[in-house]
């Protein structure tokens, strides 16, 4: 008959093992705290410029800059004509009008009343929203008739090497 041995073998070894383990844990905790403090410091420093930028953004003081995007080549738009495009996102519909040989204006064309698309009305020389007969000044984007009270957001354009590019969106005070 075999006798059951319930004794823990190598008790000392077991004891030592526990000490090591708890020390390891302590070291781990300390190491973790150090890492945490370090990470918090890095975050605080690295977030400073972002915080300033976010504040500027929230207060509407900054102009929105985006990677420039080609709207059209110069020879594809006659004076007095308009082109529709999207900027800055693919769902942000916009319109550019060529007012003269060298003058281009562009706006996001969701009406500032209830977001119907605004069209270039060449005959009347203004931007027209057909939903409630809203009108906007083509030179400035300011509302001139109907329910809209806010201007159309202007898109900055730049002519470069035979093409017109969108470069940013003008911010308006709320
Ligand atoms: S949505 Fe443009 S005038 Fe109402």
TrEMBL record:
Q: Which Pfam families match?
A: Rieske
Transmembrane found in the keyword field: yes
Where does this protein have coiled-coil stretches? none
Keyword Transport among UniProt keywords:
no
Domain Rieske per the UniProt entry, residue ranges: 69-166
Residue ranges annotated as transmembrane are 31-52
Q: Name one GO molecular function term.
A: monooxygenase activity
Q: Which UniProt keywords apply?
A: 2Fe-2S, Disulfide bond, Iron, Iron-sulfur, Membrane, Metal-binding, Transmembrane, Transmembrane helix
Which InterPro entries does the record match to this protein? Answer: Rieske_2Fe-2S, Rieske_2Fe-2S_sf, Rieske_Fe-S_prot, TAT_signal
* Family matches, as PANTHER family: CYTOCHROME B-C1 COMPLEX SUBUNIT RIESKE, MITOCHONDRIAL
What's the protein name?
Answer: Rieske (2Fe-2S) protein
Species per Swiss-Prot/TrEMBL record: Neobacillus notoginsengisoli
